[in-house]
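look at this one:
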Amino acid sequence: MMIAGAAAALLALLVFAGVAPVLGRRIQAWQATGILVLGSVLAAGSAILVLGVLASTWLGELTWVRAIVPWSERTLTLTNPVPVQIGMASTGILTFFLLAGGYVAVRRICRQVALLRAAPTGRVGTDAWAGMLPPSSSATDLTSRTEQAALLDRAVLLDDPVPDAFSLPKPVDRIFLTNAMVNRLNPAEREIVLLHERAHLRYHHGWLRLAAQLAADFVPVLRPAATAARAATERWADEYAARRIGDRRAVALAIARVGLLHPSTQSDVPAGVRSAAGDGEVPRRVRALLAPAPVARTGLAGILVALLLTAGVSSAMVALTGEDLFEDATPAAPTTVVTVPGALPHQQAHVRQR
């Protein structure tokens, strides 16, 4: 049961890591983001749990471990279904995941904290952005004056010669544009960029990406899923801007133009917060915007959910089986019979010694 459950959990994890990036591009962006992020975290947790249980079956038979936890070596050896080679391999893999992943994860978190602390938080004010956005023709426009004012109130202009635009999540909760980017875009394109970045803030994309990246730090096989999660948040922001503007083609052209302007290096903007406009996903995002609006595909999403359920249930079975294994190997504490005057023999109290 333990070996079968572990194999099912790890196989489901590998299949999820392989098909998630492909299927994630074929479902709605918000669905893909949720499944990829939550799935990465669940898959990483399941992998570490399964490896931990398998490793414990080998570690439990070591002399120094038995000196700490007094279970029966003979019982554990006879009932242990995990071969020694698998237990040793699981211990090595788990140690590598925890040490290497922990190191990378701590560095990533420290870098994120440093970026948030170093970011300017003051509002620039809408007057400084006068003429930056197209005028609203009526109070009923999707991007009305009130909405434009809200966009500009979150925007911060950076003095940087390299075109770029990005956002930082709460507690900063600001959109940053370099003056080089602003000067190279027309008012309609600036509005699209601001709407795109506001979607990242509204739906907490920065923290969702971080969660997927941390999961991949501990279980490297999930890196494609983390990359796909980042791409899904970009598509989500693109679709948000397209709904607000009401013109998918205009948004596609703006994304393409920003992608051409966006540099890969030679910017004063930290690499950790640069926008995804300059990555290889831009052509795919443009094609998605030029196509009709995506529809829900519950079948494809269901495949990913089924894989995650398989991994979760299987890892839970492994954990329960491992718990039973060590409980059976733990000798029962001796009992003392307490004689009660006037009681029959079968009514005597048995007290377990601790």
